């Protein structure tokens, strides 16, 4: 038996298959991604199974690219020799709102409530939920579980989650939720298992396409840089991060409508907007132009600045952990951030840092550093799979026994 974990985004569908052994979720035996799902894209499925990496173009006409991608994934799952049968599908859903503070079995009513949150995460939520709907249709006999990015931050104290707005708005749910929670859960579990200081003052940096920071004490989120939506906090690939709300008022006065502002904030800003070149850190590093360096410098500065805020909230720092595509692979970024946090006693080991590019957990602080520095390759799929397994294990009455993969035509 295995759990299929799914992360359906605007242009990609990431998946991983996690076997269950004695009720425990194991590392994935199959990981893959279907990219190019945007309207005019050329979808392609890339996957690794049994040590072999393969790719396949997704062809065909008629259905949407997402439907075709799903059909290809179904065929792949059905054809893989030796892959364990699927017991449930675990979906990453970025926003659980006020109602969902932990993972939940998806029903029509749950989907309807989650769809009301679409406008709070327009780059993610509608795609996550379209994914859930498609999988429900394609695998009607399998339980589908929604696992929320916001859930890890349910522990935020009021002072951290409330904005300085009239209380009536806070009561309506206009507050900081925080995101990347599946990733933070994974990093936290790793640190709790491997570092004696994991229960101390921990700063986690998830630096990927979307980027955020999370401060945790005693294993629980106590401050985070993303807010009501996934726009707040750090500069990102195409999002500005924290922005003076006066800029929005100004743009509205200039006649910008909602859709134009939304596009600016979600798709045209961040590394892409500042550089005018790319949202992709690798490309910017390779570019070498002044504009590319300006964007990288700004990204680095914002990580440092927000880190200071997180550390201040905790009153100090015991462990700093880097994750996400940039955090895991960009040694220069890690070195610069750590150098600038040197006043906190953060001291990175240059050699260990430069070598920490493999996909494994690495400890990269220098002897004498008063802060542990970790690089933790995140695994949001594994956390989602664990959540689904946990719900299955609880023997929730709502989860009917449906032991094997069953596909609808
Ligand atoms: N070797 C590398 N050096 C610098 N940046 C990298 C490297 N590998 C990946 N990245 C960056 O990681 C980012 C994507 O992060 P990732 O966590 O994979 O994104 P997503 O949010 O889509 O899961 C991109 O900006 C990419 O350029
Ligand atoms: C919430 C968020 O920003 O997610 P991602 O990093 O996948 O874009
Ligand atoms: Mg991500």
Can you describe this structure in just a few lines?
The protein has helices at 65-79, 108-115, 125-138, 158-161, 167-171, 181-194, 245-253, 258-267, 270-275, 281-287, 290-314, 324-329, 331-340, 350-355, 380-393, and strands at 2-8, 12-21, 24-25, 30-35, 44-49, 52-57, 86-93, 104-105, 144-148, 201-207, 211-217, 220-224, 319-323, 362-363, 372-375. The chain has 409 residues and is of the alpha+beta class. Adenosine-5'-diphosphate (ADP) is lined by residues 208-210, 237, 280-282, 285, 324-326, 329-330.
Describe the fold and architecture.
With about 400 residues, the protein is an alpha+beta fold. It has two domains: about 1-155, Nucleotidyltransferase, domain 5 (2-Layer Sandwich), CATH 3.30.420; about 180-380, Nucleotidyltransferase, domain 5 (2-Layer Sandwich). The chain has helices at about 65-80, 110-115, 125-140, 160, 165-170, 180-195, 245-255, 260-265, 270-275, 280-285, 290-315, 325-330, 330-340, 350-355, 380-395; strands at about 1-10, 10-20, 25, 30-35, 45-50, 50-55, 85-95, 105, 145-150, 200-205, 210-215, 220-225, 320-325, 360-365, 370-375. The strands form two sheets. Strands 1, 2, 3, 4, 5, 6, 7, 8 and 9 form a nine-stranded mixed beta sheet that branches. A hairpin with an 8-residue loop joins strand 14 and strand 15 (about 370-375). It is globular. The chain starts with a strand and ends in a 16-residue tail after the last helix. Mean pLDDT is about 90; it is low at about 395-409. The protein binds adenosine-5'-diphosphate, acetylphosphate (UVW) and magnesium ion. Magnesium ion binds next to loops.
């Amino acid at each position: 038996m295995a759990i299929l974990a799914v992360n359906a985004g605007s242009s990609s569908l990431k998946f991983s298959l996690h076997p269950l052994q004695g009720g425990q979720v194991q590392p994935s035996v199959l990981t893959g991604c279907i990219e190019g799902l945007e309207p005019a894209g050329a979808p392609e499925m890339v996957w690794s199974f049994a040590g072999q990496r393969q790719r396949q173009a997704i062809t065909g006409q008629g259905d949407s690219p997402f439907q075709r991608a799903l059909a290809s994934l179904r065929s792949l799952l059905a054809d893989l020799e030796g892959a364990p049968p699927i017991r449930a599908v675990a979906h990453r859903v970025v926003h659980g709102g006020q109602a969902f503070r932990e993972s939940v079995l998806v029903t029509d009513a749950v989907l309807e409530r989650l769809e009301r949150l679409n406008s709070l995460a327009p780059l993610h939520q509608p795609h996550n939920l379209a994914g859930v709907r498609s999988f429900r249709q394609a695998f009607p006999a399998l339980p589908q579980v929604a696992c929320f990015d916001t859930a890890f931050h349910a522990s935020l104290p009021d002072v951290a989650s409330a904005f300085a707005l009239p209380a009536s708005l806070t009561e309506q749910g206009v507050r900081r939720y925080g995101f990347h929670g599946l990733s933070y859960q994974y990093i936290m579990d790793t640190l709790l298992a491997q570092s004696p200081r994991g229960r101390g003052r921990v700063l986690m940096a998830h630096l990927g396409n979307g980027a955020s920071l999370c401060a945790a004490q005693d294993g629980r989120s106590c401050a985070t840089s993303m807010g009501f939506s996934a726009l707040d906090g750090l500069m990102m690939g195409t999002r500005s991060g924290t922005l003076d709300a006066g800029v929005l008022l100004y743009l509205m006065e200039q006649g910008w409508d909602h859709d134009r502002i939304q596009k600016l904030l979600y798709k045209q800003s961040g590394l892409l907007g500042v550089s005018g070149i790319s949202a992709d850190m690798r490309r910017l590093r390779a570019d070498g132009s002044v504009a590319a360096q300006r964007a990288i410098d700004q990204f680095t500065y914002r990580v440092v600045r927000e880190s200071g805020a997180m550390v201040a909230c905790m009153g100090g720092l015991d462990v700093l952990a880097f994750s996400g595509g940039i955090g895991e692979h960009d040694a220069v970024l890690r070195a610069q951030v750590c150098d600038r946090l040197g006043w906190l006693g953060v001291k990175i080991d240059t050699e260990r840092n430069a070598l920490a590019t493999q996909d494994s957990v690495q400890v990269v602080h220098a002897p004498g550093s008063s802060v542990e520095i970790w690089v933790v390759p995140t695994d949001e799929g594994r956390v989602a799979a664990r959540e689904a397994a946990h719900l299955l294990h609880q023997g929730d009455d709502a989860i009917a026994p449906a032991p094997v993969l069953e596909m609808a035509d």
